[in-house]
Design brief:
The protein has helices spanning about 1-10, 45-50, 65-70, 85-90, 100, 125-135, 145-155, 165-170, and strands at about 20-25, 50, 75-80, 105-110. It is an alpha/beta fold. It has one domain (about 1-170): 3-Layer(aba) Sandwich (Rossmann fold), CATH 3.40.50.1980. Helix 1 (about 1-10) runs parallel beside helix 6 and helix 6 (about 125-135) runs antiparallel to helix 7 (about 145-155).
């Protein structure tokens, strides 16, 4: 299991660094409370080499941001806490002022069979790492994506999802 985890981490490490992808990670349902770099929620983005526009723990204030502050930070992509939050932000006219939202670049990590996000800290972060590497770059889910996620499921969950099941898992 450790070998598979290391393989995936090594494969995806730094893939969002050149050119750097600017990511806003929202920890709250309303999208205004940021997840800072250095917090467990921002680990995957940092490992991938993305720039967390909210700042770093210890260097940035831990408080909700205004929509204007988020817009000024110019994220390329917004990652939110849940599919409900993603739908709310997409539908809210005030969030359309943010180019990433207007372009449809707001996502929530898949939630099956368990949430792929950072909470609780678990093996679910591995498929999340793969998923984030794709959505942050705007890459379509291809055979390599399906193969890597399938390997995680086979190794850690003892299930190999079909192509249709994988598509359903990442459907937003």
């Amino acid at each position: 299991l450790a070998t598979e985890a290391e393989r995936l981490i090594d494969k995806y490490r730094g893939t969002l660094a050149d050119p750097p992808v600017r990511v806003y990670l929202a920890c709250s349902q309303n999208g205004l409370s940021p997840c800072l770099e250095g917090h467990s929620t921002g680990e995957a983005a940092a490992l991938l080499g993305a720039v967390n526009v909210a700042g770093r723990v210890g260097q940035s204030e831990r408080r909700p941001l205004t929509l204007d502050e988020i817009r000024e930070r110019a994220p390329d992509v917004v990652i939110v806490a849940s599919t409900g939050a993603a739908k709310s932000l997409r539908a809210a006219p005030e969030w359309q002022q943010l180019p990433a939202i207007a372009a449809g670049r707001v996502y929530a990590a898949p939630e099956l069979p368990f949430n792929w996000g950072p909470r609780p800290p678990s093996v679910n972060r591995l498929p999340s790492l793969i998923w984030l590497a794709y959505v942050a770059r705007g890459r379509p889910f291809d055979d390599e994506f399906r193969e890597d996620v399938s390997h995680v499921f086979a190794a850690f969950y003892h299930v190999t999802p079909t192509a249709a099941q994988l598509e359903q898992l990442v459907a937003d």
